[in-house]
UniProtKB/TrEMBL annotation:
GO BP term, example: negative regulation of DNA-templated transcription
Matches recorded under Gene3D superfamilies: Homeodomain-like, Tetracycline Repressor, domain 2
Record-annotated DNA-binding residue ranges: 43-62
PROSITE patterns reported for this sequence: HTH_TETR_2
UniProt source species: Marinobacterium mangrovicola
Gene Ontology molecular function terms on file: DNA binding
Upper classification of the organism: Bacteria, Pseudomonadati, Pseudomonadota, Gammaproteobacteria, Oceanospirillales
Stated name of the protein: TetR family transcriptional regulator
Location of the HTH tetR-type domain: 20-80
Keyword vocabulary terms for this entry: DNA-binding
Domain of life: Bacteria
Pfam families: TetR_C_3, TetR_N
């Protein structure tokens, strides 16, 4: 075997790596298309064009436009639930709540289109995501509420309503994706800057910790 053939063999990428790269590329393109045009205004062809892949390739990984749409919704839900899953009763809310706010705001910064699609889906009655809401999200929601109740029982924070605390955390952080356009117009800039998210982290952390009676230091 020649040295050239040996090198080619050593540098050949695994099929699983190529597959995951294609899936990520397609989902990212789908997020943008669905966010800009809605479900009815988006086609598989437009997603394929945005992804830079042939339409048959897109349909190889996702059998339909609906399948792609569900994949986009599932990905953002999994990201959100992962952040909730990392909240533990043994962790002090001072650090845990700040960490959660940081993650949620970074998700709004990094995945704004997916967040907007999810918001639109909810406004339309959640026809494609209701099972996820009633199943995995509801279970994670209950687990996180139980963590908040444990913190209250330990005297680490005031007896606030844990369900509505979680709703407040979602609303305040996801607004930096769903209402980013409004923020950009009012702040007079083309895009939200890292400083805007840093300022949001500090403000929301202060509001939540003080509002819940958690000592800042």
């Amino acid at each position: 075997m020649t040295e050239k053939k040996k090198t080619a063999k050593r540098t050949r990428r695994p099929l699983t790596e190529i597959r995951q790269e294609n899936i990520d590329q397609i989902v990212k393109a789908a997020e943008k298309q669905f966010a800009d045009n809605g479900f009815s205004g988006t086609t598989v062809s437009s997603i394929a064009e945005a992804a830079g892949l042939p339409k048959p390739n897109v349909l190889y990984y996702f059998k339909s436009k609906e399948g792609l749409y569900r994949a986009v919704l599932k990905r953002i839900l999994e990201l959100w639930m992962e952040a909730m899953h990392d909240l533990h009763a043994e962790d002090h809310p001072r650090e845990a709540l700040r960490g959660y706010i940081v993650r949620k705001l970074r998700q709004s910064r990094d995945f704004p289109d997916a967040s907007k699609i999810f918001a639109a889906e909810i406004l339309h009655g959640a026809p494609y995501v209701r099972e996820e809401l009633e199943g995995p999200l509801k279970r994670q929601f209950d687990d996180t509420v139980a963590v908040f109740r444990a913190w209250i029982a330990k005297g680490w924070m005031d007896p606030v309503n844990p369900e509505h605390l979680l709703f407040t955390l979602w609303a305040s952080t996801q607004s930096y994706a769903d209402f980013a356009l409004q923020m950009k117009v009012l702040l007079g800039r083309e895009e939200l800057a890292d400083d805007d998210f840093d300022n949001a982290i500090e403000l929301l952390t202060r509001l939540v910790l003080k509002g819940c009676g958690v000592k800042m230091v």
